């Protein structure tokens, strides 16, 4: 199955946990998301990030784990996503997975991949 859903970030709490005198700082954020559409519910995210600047030629990377609580095309439960990206002037590489055996409720046998863009998630998944 393939779905796309919208999300809105409803909470963001970020701290810097490593700020060297030479090199970019490392940050950690706790994020809350509200999903709507084929995926309807809430996401609770813990993210690690590094950004070397503010422009398009700078580098940035993140990795995150996220527990989603809600319904996927009408089936209710929870599951965990692991996703991230790393990029710079030559482009961006992304990855994302539904962590196997993390589903609960009607989503117990959920497996697949995800792609997270600004305000949108795409899931390619199997259920059972």
In short:
With 128 residues, the chain is mainly β. The chain is built from no helices and eight strands. Strand 4 and strand 5 (75-88) form a beta hairpin.
Please, could you describe this protein's structure?
0% of the residues lie in helices and 73% in strands. It starts with a strand and ends with a strand. An eight-stranded antiparallel barrel has the order 1-2-3-4-5-6-7-8. The relative contact order is 0.20. With 128 residues, the chain is an all-beta fold. The mean pLDDT is 95. The chain has a single domain (2-127), classed as AOC barrel-like (Beta Barrel). The protein contains no helices and eight strands. The chain is elongated and about 50 Å long.
Question: What is the element layout, followed by pairings?
Answer:
Blueprint (H helix, E strand, L loop, with lengths): L1 E17 L7 E12 L1 E13 L8 E13 L2 E14 L2 E8 L11 E8 L2 E8 L1
Antiparallel strand pairs: 1-2, 1-8, 2-3, 3-4, 4-5, 5-6, 6-7, 7-8
């Amino acid at each position: 199955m393939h779905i796309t859903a919208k999300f809105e970030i409803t909470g963001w709490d970020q701290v810097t946990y490593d700020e060297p005198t030479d090199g970019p700082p490392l940050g950690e954020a706790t994020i809350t998301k509200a999903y709507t559409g084929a995926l309807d519910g809430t996401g609770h995210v813990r993210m690690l990030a590094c950004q070397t600047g503010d422009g398009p030629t700078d580098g940035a990377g993140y990795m995150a784990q996220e527990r989603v609580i809600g319904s996927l095309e009408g089936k209710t439960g929870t599951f965990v996503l692991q996703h991230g990206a790393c990029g710079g002037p030559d482009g961006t590489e992304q990855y994302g997975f539904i962590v196997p055996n993390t589903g609960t409720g009607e989503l117990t046998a959920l497996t697949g991949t995800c792609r997270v863009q600004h305000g949108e998630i795409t899931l390619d998944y199997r259920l059972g």
